[in-house]
Amino acid sequence: MADEHARKWDRCLADTAVKTVTGLGVGIVFSLIVFKRRAWPLSFGSGLGLGMGYSNCQHDFRSPYLIHGRMVKVSAQCNFHCLSEVCDTRSHHAA
Amino acid sequence: MLPPGSASKVVVAGLLTVSGGIGGTVLYAKWDHKFRAAVEKNVPYSDWLLGLALGPAAQDPGLPIKKRVELAQPPSMIEKQAKKEGAEGPVKDSSPAPSQPAQSLEEASAEATHIISAIGEVPSVPAPCDTEAAAVKECNECHEHKEATAVHPAPTEPMKERPVEEVAARLAQQEQEEQDISASVSASLEDSLASSAKATLQAIGAQEAALQAIMQHTDKLKEAMEAEVLPEEKSNQWKDLEAALADRTTALNDARAALSKANESLDSLRSVIDESKGLKISSVRPLVLAAEENLHNMVVDLDKMVMKVQSAESEAKIVSQYSELVNEAKRQFQREVSSLTPEIQANWKGLTGKLSTDDLNALIAHAHRRIDQLNRELAEQKVREKIHIDAALEQQKLEDQKALDNAVNTALQHVKEDARLDQERKLAELREVMEAEMRTQLRRQAAAHTDHVQDVLKVQEHELKAEAEQVLSSKMLEQETRYRQLTQEQLDNFTLDMNTAYARLKGVEEAIDSHVVAEDEARKAHQLWLSVEALSYSLKTAEADVPTVPLENAAQAVRDSCRDNDFALALASALPEKSLQRGVYSEASLRARFNSLRSLARRVALIDESRNSLYQYFLSYLQAALLFEKSQEAPPSQLSSEDLDPFKLLSYASYCLEHGDLELAAKLVNQLRGEARRVVEDWLIEARLTLETRQVVNLLSAYANAVGLGTTQAP
């Protein structure tokens, strides 16, 4: 399990780096083609990429703690064995 | 800024305060040990300082007082013992003991009792010892008494018991003695009788010879006196006379000697007779009587002979007197003649031719004168004849009287003797008659006695027979019952023996079976043990980071070796599946892995379900970088809430792992929460696996050891 952590970090960093570079690239492309070589699409694109990477990373690190609920239809036959509706609304605890 | 002078003041004041505080602390610590202990505990290096100032802390004084008290008690007991023994010693010495062994016994017992009483037990022990000693003494005395009394009856008993036998023996002995004595007496009597008879005969013969000699001599003398024969014949006569005289003297001497001898032998015979009379034995009496009679006869004969000899001697004396007178007259005449005729010799008859006429005349004158004298004497004699005759008669009477007296005495003696002998004879006869009568009476009595005895014997026989038959029957009955009893007993014993043998056989069989079973068990137990050992050995095959070989084979072996043992089977099946398939990690590898995990767990210590953003991750990393804890810390026996801090938990777990306590480490690690828990989850699972497997294997091993020990047969 400890390796998992390290692997997660690897994935995370790699993914973030890729996304950032990809965003930068898209920004460059957009900057060159559409937005007349302005600087903001680069930072926007890299920022976009970084953010996506961060989010992915965080999600990856959080993934063990995420609980997936499902809706179950209550039928008339099983009155006593009602499966409770579990729906977890993750409250984002802002730092 | 403070002025420079006040700085020194401040420094000095500060120093004084500090030293005062330290001195006060030291002094108070010297007085109060608890304070000293508290100070040493709370202030580091104070124990060094206080030790330097005051010396090492005093030991706990609680124990020695008790020890001294305890030690004090036994010496008192020992002193008491010694005192008592000392008191007893002089007492014993002062009182003289009767016997040495008893005294030593008493002393030993007294000592023993004193020791026992000193220890505090019931002092009833001296009583039996003393009584024993007393009993021993008493027994000694009793023995002595018994011995003494035993000695006394012993000599008296034979005296009581002997008489019956003794009487018979003595009677027999007496008879024997009597016979011997009678034989000896008779022999002696005969001897003495014979000797005395011989002597008496000899004496009588000698007396006869003497008598003859005397008579001869007397005759010769008479002849010589009266016969007027020729001178030659006269000289022959005188020679014959002398010879006869000599004969007579010798015969008389012989007779006297023989007489004395005879008297001696008679005396001896008499003494023998008296002796044998003194013995008072009846069988000797007739012999004695006969001997006495013989003696008496001999004495009588001897006396007769002596009397004869005496009478002859008296006659001879008269004749010799007469001859003496004649010789005297002749001599007188001769003297006269010789005085008248001195030249003439004595033998004048042969000298007729030599005489002269004067001589003849003188001689004739002398003869005439002599004749006248003689005539005158004759006339005187005639006159005095009567007187002489009377005197002679008197003399004769006296002599006769004497002789008569002697004769009477001897006759009286003889008669007395005869009477006595007669009496004795009559007595003997009477005795014989009485004996005979007594014998007949005794015979009658004996006959009666025998009859009576026969009757009594018959009766007794009947009685005894009846008694004996009764006894016999009872004894027979007894014997029969005893026989039956014995046979029954034997039967019982036999059945008992058979039963015991059978039981023993059964027992032996059972023992053998149980042995077989036990051996089987033992074999199985050994197999189990071996398989468990194999299993536990296979646990050790784990190397670093590589799990052990799969335990499936070993577990299968264990399962095979305990097919009918539910407990072992249950245990064997309790092995976790993973360990069987894949094997378990060793403790060392777990330890190593934990060390690497620890840093990671420290880094994600802040992350849990609620805090898991990347910022939290950053903070968690920062915390891990800035927070320092002891790498290993001994965990307390009870965890408090502050001990649940992950860092502390990790240090506790590390300590436990370093000290080989995987279980506690796992428990502590189990307290981690959140991401740290997730991170060490694998490790925990592995640790659990290892612990489980080890527990099962330990259980199995213990069980196998126990079973093995149980089946081991003690030598």
Automatic annotation (TrEMBL), chain A:
Q: Which GO terms describe its cellular component?
A: MICOS complex
- What is the protein's membrane topology class? Single-pass membrane protein
**Database matches in InterPro entries:** Mic10 (IPR007512)
The protein's location, in the record's own words, is: Mitochondrion inner membrane
One of this protein's Pfam families, by short name?
A: DUF543
- Report TM segments: 17-35
The protein's predominant localisation is mitochondrion
Keyword annotations: Membrane, Mitochondrion, Mitochondrion inner membrane, Transmembrane, Transmembrane helix
Q: Does the keyword Mitochondrion apply?
A: yes
Q: Subunit arrangement?
A: Component of the mitochondrial contact site and cristae organizing system (MICOS) complex.
Its function? Component of the MICOS complex, a large protein complex of the mitochondrial inner membrane that plays crucial roles in the maintenance of crista junctions, inner membrane architecture, and formation of contact sites to the outer membrane.
Which family, according to UniProt?
A: Belongs to the MICOS complex subunit Mic10 family.
What name goes with this protein?
MICOS complex subunit MIC10
Q: Which organism is it from?
A: Astatotilapia calliptera (Eastern happy)
Gene name of the encoded protein: MICOS10-NBL1
Automatic annotation (TrEMBL), chain B:
Any GO CC annotation of this UniProt entry = MICOS complex
Q: Which UniProt keywords apply?
A: Coiled coil, Membrane, Mitochondrion, Mitochondrion inner membrane, Transmembrane, Transmembrane helix
Composition bias, kind Low complexity: at what positions? 94-104
Which region ranges are annotated with the description Disordered? 81-110
The UniProt entry lists membrane topology as:
Single-pass membrane protein
What is the protein name stated in its UniProt record? MICOS complex subunit MIC60
Coiled-coil boundaries:
357-384
Please note every region of biased composition (Basic and acidic residues): 81-91
Provide the gene name from the record.
IMMT
Compartments, record wording: Mitochondrion inner membrane
Q: Tell me, in one coarse class, where this protein mainly resides.
A: mitochondrion
Looking up PANTHER family in the UniProt record yields: MICOS COMPLEX SUBUNIT MIC60 (PTHR15415:SF7), MITOFILIN (PTHR15415)
Quaternary structure and interacting proteins, as annotated? Component of the mitochondrial contact site and cristae organizing system (MICOS) complex.
GO biological process terms on file: cristae formation
| Function summary | Component of the MICOS complex, a large protein complex of the mitochondrial inner membrane that plays crucial roles in the maintenance of crista junctions, inner membrane architecture, and formation of contact sites to the outer membrane.
By sequence similarity, the record places it as follows: Belongs to the MICOS complex subunit Mic60 family.
Pfam families, per this entry? Mitofilin (PF09731)
Transmembrane is among the record's keywords: yes
